[in-house]
Amino acid sequence: MTAGAAGEGVPNEGLSPVTPDVSNEGLSPVTKAGNDAPIGVFDSGLGGLTVLREIHRLLPCENLVYFGDSGRTPYGTKSQETVLRYTLQDVNFLLSKGVKAIVIACNTASACSLDTVRQTYGLPVIEVVEPGSAAAVAATKTGRIGVIGTPATIGSEVYKRAIDRAASAAGRTDVNYFGVPCPLFVSLAEEGWWDNDVARLTARKYLEPLKDAGIDTLVLGCTHYPLLTPAISRVMGRRVKLINSASVVAAAVQNVLRERGLLRDAENADNATVRFFTSDSADKFRALGSKFLAGSVEHVERVDIEQF
Fold first, then answer.
1. For domain 130-244, is the CATH number 3.40.50.1860?
2. Single pTM value for the model
3. How far is CA 268 from CA 14, 16, 47, 221, 265, in A?
């Protein structure tokens, strides 16, 4: 995937130059910009690229704007009040780009801020917890589901409640939840230490309780964690299914946009654009983003997120 920052006009596998931002002028981005407006995706750093990649794969005709708040990562060790403030700033930044929908590609932000975001802004908001929980319940054979996430996500028990709801909806009474916080995983992912000795030793330390619990399904309850899949898989073994919510979130985005009549025409894939923004080093984001997306992230723009 090749992409450009605002106004750079960098091709993305044949994609056209980015068009100017659409001014909201006090109106909802949906009202002002319509179907051609981009989908906004944000995360505390690089992790949300796992979600962006799947959205781009499923909906190649859609314009996308990604913001990674690497300058303030991790969110998972911050207070709920701080996470809420960060989240609202992230959303406000994406609104300044005229987005038609928001994807909260951060489990911690979803856990701490989802209700407030949905009540505050007049556009579709898609999150990652419910889709991942439903996928885990559908996947488990023994009913023993583990969830790893940041301290804030695990401490909120948002996944426990979501898994309980999914199990109830599926008519299952055999589902048990086991949550373990893995705070260092985000830092490892942001450093690009995805499958080295440090990553493997850290994974072994964190995941031992889940191995002892005999889980057969493990939810990667932070969008950074799929970057560490090789290290996690080595520890958990082949019999444990890893749930990466990115693909089901992409499907949820498609469904919401279809229901709202906001899908972009399929024939527009050749002129779709993807733009990247970060609150930290653009060079570092470009290098690690290109590595993960298996393509060139040619241009990344640094943003002073505190201005939003």
1. yes
2. 0.82
3. 11, 10, 27, 33, 6
